[in-house]
Write a structure and sequence with these properties.
The structure holds 2 protein chains of 2 kinds.
Chain A: H1 10-20, E1 29-32, H2 35-46, E2 54-55, E3 60-64, E4 78-82, H3 85-94, E5 97-101, E6 105-106, E7 112-113, E8 116-117, E9 126-127, H4 134-140, E10 142-147, E11 184-189, E12 192-195, E13 204-208, H5 214-219, H6 239-248
Parallel strand pairs in A: 1-5, 5-10, 10-11
Antiparallel strand pairs in A: 2-3, 3-4, 6-7, 8-9, 11-12, 12-13
Chain B: H1 7-12, E1 19-22, H2 32-39, E2 46-50, H3 54-61, E3 65-70, H4 82-89, E4 94-97, H5 100-112, E5 116-119, H6 127-130, E6 135-138, E7 145-150, E8 154-164, E9 170-171, H7 180-186, E10 187-197, E11 221-224, H8 242-251, H9 256-264, H10 270-276, H11 280-284
Parallel strand pairs in B: 1-2, 1-8, 2-3, 3-4, 8-10, 10-11
Antiparallel strand pairs in B: 5-7, 6-7, 8-9
Helix pairs in contact in B: 2-3, 3-4, 5-7
Classes of the chains: A alpha/beta, B alpha/beta.
């Protein structure tokens, strides 16, 4: 059943690492933003944590995740609850949610940016999406970050250009709050998995993808990360997981998400 | 009671400097025909409150906007709205950038006649730094600080619905009515365009009344505009027009908004617009993209 696969892509390795982050979440709404995080949430719901709730990205909670991409004309999705956008916020504010988002910038405090880059706030060099729901997500429930290309443009030196989320930044901690009120979980990148379990919530290396070194990770990060004495290798997907991923993503959209679709083992 | 209006009469009831809320979400169920009517008018200095898509982009590009109150402006499958982006990057507009949920609270506060609603959302982020008119306050009940999300009082709201009667009973049959009920309630005047105008008895059939999300006293005017959400969607009647949005997006790089507006808006009636985009029957055949 749980035979480690020999052949798997980096995208599949990242999906499995992301999915593992939901194992102990219990009954929460999982939202994976983007193709790979969505597959990861669906994988977790199908395998390790069947209590997960998931939506169709429109208005319904599903008892079974929708496959990614175009579906047959006779496909009927498994609705269980109406969940229009206004009700999403009722769930967010209850705290029973864990999202994996893909910010453009992440800083040493775990603060993230999807709003704008460069220039001044009044006149940014590049306007992106806006803060969207990130401020509320970050202070109300669990958040993980998914980074397809680990580099210093993403993991910036200094703070994000627009701080869209609350993180472990003492200078911004609101009155009456402690770091324990903030729930930043995993950072899954194309090089490694990290969390915020270092001293004073410093970003910490959790596992290295096969063939990647801690030096490579540090060299591509704009701030110092905590590197424990022994860092394990990110666990390979099992054959069973790969088979389920293929069912969730029948059009193999996962192969188009990372540049050149690299193999999972780069040693 | 007959609340029917022409789109021209809706725009004539608006004035410079007003705060206007626009319903829908990104490329979904936007009152685009009413937006096009504003683009053809002399209105200016508007403050727009929206879960923004091309409505916000077009109004910015046409110089109608003084300020945008937003959490995002996006065409969804085209993540970055090209003309909102230009407006921001040229420093042309003022902003109040808030979380999606904060906007909902601001509309609710306006609807309920409260000056603000307390929330933790926004604390610890730049949202509380970049918005001068957003206050953080102490609580009389605990030792924490709270964001006092102010009421987003709207002078007018513009909304597109599937169908309405002449008295302002409005029905939205798509899976989500988004925050449109709160836009309707937060506004002094709510103008609704509808794809289908029906008799009041329509709502007495089966469970049709279950898809009515605000009572008619919250509707000021009704404009019968079949296909009036185009190029945004009005599911289940039609999806959004992906090729049209691509053309709109490309115009920002080649020709600019004036080229787009000269082709589709300026001096072009809504009937002519619909012919240019393939006709009403073609609009009604547009599929909804699958995610």
């Amino acid at each position: 059943m749980s035979t480690a696969a020999k052949d798997y892509s980096l995208a599949e390795l990242m999906i499995v690492a992301n999915a593992r982050g939901y194992d102990d979440d219990g009954e929460v709404l999982v939202t994976g933003i983007g193709v790979l995080p969505r597959i990861a949430g669906s994988l977790a719901m199908t395998t390790s944590n069947p209590d997960i709730m998931m939506t169709d990205s429109e208005a319904w909670v599903l008892s079974k995740p929708n496959p990614v991409g175009n579906r047959p004309a006779d496909f009927v999705q498994h609705n269980e609850t109406w969940m229009g956008f206004s009700r999403i916020f009722d769930n967010v504010w209850s705290g029973k949610r864990h999202i994996t988002g893909g910010p453009t910038q992440i800083d040493r405090y775990g603060q993230a940016n999807i709003s704008a880059l460069g220039g001044s706030y009044e006149q940014p060099k590049i306007q992106m999406l806006g803060v969207r729901g990130f401020p509320g997500n970050s202070i109300c429930h669990a958040n993980s970050w998914f980074v397809p290309a680990h580099n210093k443009r993403v993991f910036v030196d200094g703070e994000c250009d627009v701080v869209c989320t609350i993180g472990y930044n003492p200078a911004r901690l609101p009155k009456g709050y402690q770091f324990d009120d903030i729930d930043l979980r995993l950072v899954i990148t194309d090089l490694c998995v990290m969390d915020f379990g270092g001293p004073e919530h410093q970003m910490r290396l959790v596992s290295l993808h096969p063939g990647i070194t801690a030096e490579q990770v540090q060299d591509n990060t704009g701030f110092e990360i905590h590197v424990p004495d022994a860092v394990p290798t990110t666990a390979a997907p099992t054959e069973e997981q790969l088979a389920i991923i293929a069912q969730i993503d029948p059009h193999n959209l996962r192969a188009k998400q990372l540049k050149d679709n690299p193999a999972g083992d780069r040693s | 009671m007959d609340k029917q209006m022409t789109p021209q009469a809706v725009v004539a009831s608006l004035s410079d400097g007003m705060t206007v809320g626009i319903g829908g979400w990104g490329p979904r169920r936007k009152p685009m025909a009413l937006v096009r009517e504003i683009l053809r008018s002399d209105l200016k200095d508007l403050t727009i409150v929206a879960y923004g898509g091309a409505d916000v982009g077009m109004l910015c590009a046409a110089g109608k906007v003084k300020k945008v109150i937003f959490a995002f402006v996006s065409l969804d499958f085209i993540p970055l709205e090209p003309y909102f982006r230009k407006a921001r990057q040229s420093g042309a507009i003022e902003t109040m950038e808030i979380d999606e949920g904060m906007m909902l609270l601001g509309l609710r506060a306006a609807a309920w006649g409260c000056p603000f609603i307390p929330t933790r959302v926004g604390l610890g982020t730049d949202v509380v730094k970049i918005n001068d008119d957003l206050k953080v306050i102490d609580s009389p009940y605990d030792d924490k600080e709270w964001v006092a999300m102010p009421a987003l009082k709207l002078d007018a709201a513009l909304i597109h619905v599937d169908r309405a009667d002449a008295r302002g009973v409005c029905q939205i049959k798509g899976a989500d009515h988004y925050m449109d009920d709160w836009f309707a309630r937060a506004a002094e005047q709510t103008y609704v365009s509808c794809d289908e105008l029906v008799d009041t008895d329509y709502f007495a059939q089966g469970d049709e009344a279950r898809y009515v999300f605000w009572e008619r006293s919250a509707t000021t005017g009704v404009v019968h505009l079949p296909g009036g959400a185009h190029p945004s969607s009005c599911t289940p009647l039609y999806g959004f027009d992906v090729p049209h949005f691509k053309e709109y997006n490309a115009s920002a790089k080649d020709g600019g908004f004036s080229a787009y507006a000269d082709k589709y808006i300026n001096g072009v009636s809504e009937a002519e617009y619909q012919e240019l985009v393939g006709g009403l029957e073609a609009i009604k055949q547009l599929p909804m993209p699958v995610y």
